[in-house]
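Run log // design_07
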């Protein structure tokens, strides 16, 4: 009997030692986040990510370090999302358009002329619908931390000033890798080609494509105006970004560090959006000095809008009609 008690005592002392060690390990363990984006180091997206790095490193007391790579150094949006799934990279921040091949409901944000303004987008993205979409990425091993902003996209090209859909006819336009974008540009009479962002500048320079569409900040900061003479303020779609983290990496973090990462994602979202809006409006003005910038009249804009509207029906099944209706209802109830 005595022997049994002695063994029980020895085992429990050993186990309590193990647990104590386990706990100690967790609080001393350090983590490394490798984060990559497609835009360059002048973009609001890069500055937002650097702020995320600063907050995470400071608030984790150095237990997490963040290495940031820009200009598609780690690959394009799709490749980086796949690297997150494989556990080879921890963070990326793609446009929602390429997320559609991972989770089709994200296609709701590709619907042209969906958000009347950025505040309406914020209401949807930061509300219940946005949170449900972020959470839904769990089925593909990704965790959506927050929606950041890419912004309203505008057409540029090297051939001619575009005022109406008729002027788009025959233009070779690079699009993001997304079927709705391809369809919408085909409907407008263009010859669209999906292509990774990192290949775009040289494709325009070499005449592989005549044009592309992106927010004003990107057109200016990526020097697209050097190879594009014409821009039109089509504002045809509002592109959100999603700050993504590999779900397994996030779940393996101790709870206090999960909070540090999540809080930093929200704080840097606010900074990124503010800066992005400033850049998009300031750089539009700067672009007017170096290229022809066409401001569409409401009637001209309506012509683009009515031509691409059929994609709402074509894609309602893939996205889910209920989701489209609830986004539209949310925009309305937010007062826009
Ligand atoms: O960092 C984001 C970019 O990789 C990309 O999403 C930019 O809007 C974009 C595009 O046209 O590919």
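design_07 sequence
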């Amino acid at each position: 009997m005595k022997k049994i008690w002695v063994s029980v005592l020895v085992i429990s002392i050993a186990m309590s030692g193990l647990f104590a060690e386990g706990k100690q390990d967790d609080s001393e363990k350090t983590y490394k986040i490798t984060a990559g984006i497609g835009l360059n180091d002048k973009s609001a997206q890069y500055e937002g990510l650097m702020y995320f790095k600063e907050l995470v490193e400071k608030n984790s007391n150095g237990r997490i370090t963040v290495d940031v790579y820009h200009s598609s150094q780690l690959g394009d949006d799709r490749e980086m999302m796949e690297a997150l799934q494989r556990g080879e990279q921890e963070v990326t921040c793609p446009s929602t358009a390429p997320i559609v091949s991972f989770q089709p409901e994200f296609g709701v944000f590709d619907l042209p002329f969906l958000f009347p303004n950025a505040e309406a987008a914020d209401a949807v993205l930061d509300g219940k619908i946005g949170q449900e979409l972020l959470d839904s990425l769990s089925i593909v091993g990704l965790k959506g931390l927050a929606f950041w902003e890419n912004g309203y996209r505008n057409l540029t090209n090297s051939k001619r000033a575009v005022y109406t859909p008729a002027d788009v006819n025959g233009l070779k336009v690079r699009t993001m890798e997304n079927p709705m974008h391809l369809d919408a540009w085909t409907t407008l009479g263009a010859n669209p080609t999906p292509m990774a962002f990192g290949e775009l500048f040289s494709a325009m320079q070499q005449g592989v494509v005549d044009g592309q569409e992106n927010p004003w900040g990107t057109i200016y900061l990526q020097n697209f105006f050097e190879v594009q003479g014409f821009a039109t303020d089509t504002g045809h779609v509002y592109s959100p970004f999603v700050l993504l983290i590999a779900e397994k990496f996030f779940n393996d973090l101790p709870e206090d560090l999960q909070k540090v990462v999540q809080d930093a994602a929200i704080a840097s979202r606010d900074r990124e959006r503010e800066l992005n809006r400033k850049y998009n409006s300031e750089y539009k003005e700067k672009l007017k000095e170096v290229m022809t910038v066409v401001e569409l009249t409401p009637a001209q804009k309506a012509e683009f809008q009515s031509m691409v509207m059929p994609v709402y029906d074509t894609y309602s099944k893939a996205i889910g009609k209920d989701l489209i209706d609830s986004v539209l209802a949310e925009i309305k109830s937010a007062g826009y």
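The longest strand covers residues 142-152.
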